[in-house]
TrEMBL record:
Residues 2-187 form the Bacterial bifunctional deaminase-reductase C-terminal domain. It comes from the Bacteria. InterPro entries: DHFR-like_dom_sf (IPR024072), RibDG_C (IPR002734), Riboflavin_Biosynth_HTPR (IPR050765). Pfam families: RibD_C. GO terms for biological process: riboflavin biosynthetic process. This is Dihydrofolate reductase. One of its GO terms (molecular function) is 5-amino-6-(5-phosphoribosylamino)uracil reductase activity. It comes from Streptomyces lasalocidi. Transmembrane segments: none annotated.
């Protein structure tokens, strides 16, 4: 069984929107695009590279797919991620796209949850969900996330799209590993373990 792993960059207050640049995603008037680089370091890059090693595919929503497809095919070949991003298979969930042209990309057909269940049951390595907040919400609601790999950066934005938005499914998490980089970024890996318990003091 393949694992579906949500890999997400977050601010300390949980915002995942537009970490990579001011023009990445200005939806709803978001003005803080590009918040990640000033608070990142090489340990973050090394951790992310390690998170990609067991994966041979990405699962992307339309917006993230379009951002990546406009960048990675012509990205600097000296960047260690360029070859990896282009070579991995990309599964794209979209209600509006009719074709995907980035190499090794294919559109999911039919119901997204059913399509992802079929992917999980197929042969292959891990499948990383990158960005793609709306898609991540759908996967969480349907119990399809096997692991969260989060970089939680020391910055507060105050607005923007959040991974665990209002209405997120209550879930207990088992910590797999939690470390902190020299810049104060928390590298956290968690696995869902079912419904949370409740108790009192």
């Amino acid at each position: 069984m393949r694992k579906v792993i949500v890999c997400t960059f977050l601010t300390l207050d949980g915002v995942m929107q537009a970490p990579g640049g001011p023009d990445e995603d200005a939806t709803s008037g978001f003005e803080h695009g590009g918040w990640q680089k000033p608070v990142s370091d090489d340990e973050v890059g090394n951790a992310i590279a390690g998170w990609y090693e067991p994966a041979d595919a990405m699962l992307l929503g339309r917006k993230t797919y379009e951002i990546f497809a406009s960048y990675w095919p012509t990205a600097d070949p000296g960047n260690p991620f360029t070859e990896r991003m282009n070579a991995m298979h990309k599964y794209v969930a979209s209600r509006t796209l009719t074709s995907v042209d980035w190499q090794n990309s294919s559109l999911l057909e039919g119901d997204v949850a059913d399509a992802v269940r079929a992917l999980k049951a197929s042969d292959g390595g891990d499948i990383n969900v990158v960005g793609s907040g709306d898609l991540a919400q759908t996967l969480m609601r349907n119990g399809l996330v096997d692991e969260y790999r989060l970089t939680i950066h020391p910055v507060i934005i105050g607005s923007g799209k959040r991974l665990f938005a209002e209405g997120a499914v209550p879930t207990a998490l088992e910590p797999v590993s939690v470390t902190t980089t020299k810049s104060g970024t928390v590298l956290a890996v968690y696995r869902p373990t079912g419904e949370p318990s409740h108790d009192s003091y």
